[in-house]
Amino acid sequence: MPLPYKPGSHGPEIEYWQAWFRREYRAYAPPEDGYYGKDEVAAVKEMQRRLGLSQSGEFDATTASRVGYVPPAPGLRPIMFTVEGHSSNMFAGPVADTAAQLEAEGLCHHQPIGYNNGPIPFDNASGVNELARLIGSEVMDNLVPFPKGTPWALGGFSQGGIVICDFYFDYLAPGKPLEWRTPDLEGVLAYGNPGRQADSIADWARSWITQAGSHGLDPIRRFGLPGFPAKPDFWVDVYREGDIFAENTDDKSSEVKAAVYQAVARSDFFSNPFSVAAQIAILFGQPVEEVLAIVTAIVSGVAFLGDQPNPHYSPYDISGGVAWMRDRLRS
């Protein structure tokens, strides 16, 4: 759409411009509804008044040049970034398959995140750093444009869930370095997520779950814990009953599962109370029933990383997630 934007202009490019306006001139930005109407005219007149320009109310090339606005490239589409799990192929899995399907429908570009997903303990930082590098850029390595204001989406599975949670906490949350990207984040789809907030479950997956009150396995860096934000509304979690990465409680057995997780996923063997060392230190002070529960939990937790099929690794029905993300990208 060529400049000027004026009354009657509408569509994705106006939404893009409105998002840019809100980010750069929040104090008097018009609403983001994809339509250039009286609110836009008033906002642009105010901008032009402050710049000492003729107050036409049309966002023309002269106004754009003075404020550094660059229109989006023709055919600009959202980008969906996906982070798959431990030892996974970054091009395959529940979130990669979702993005690939939506890319084939012309709704997004798929940008898989390659990271060091082989080691134990996990190297989550390599995924977080790669997300930060790409999402902080205005063009992808494959030359797909990603200017400010471009809608985007995010998906993570298993270890990828850890990566996207850490990325949100450290880069996208209020006051963090890439907070300016958050207003354009259309949706986050997390499968088997250790950072799952208590009772967070996508509407289409509720029938898969019978146990209420559970949460992700991460005992320290998890949505809703002290020092961490509540899960944002644009984030949905999908898991199946028995998935110990995504479904944990607060009893003794669950504490030990969290300790195994801290060792494997966070390289944390010693901090209290969520560490293998702490649990071993108190082991012999527990009743026999508790000792058996702890041993069972340790065996379950270690076997869980490798045994397939199981509720965490078995192929997902991704149709609900595809439909949800499709609606988000079209909105």
Automatic annotation (TrEMBL):
Pfam families: PG_binding_1 (PF01471). Residues 12-64 form the Peptidoglycan binding-like domain. This is Peptidoglycan binding-like domain-containing protein. It comes from Mycobacterium terramassiliense.
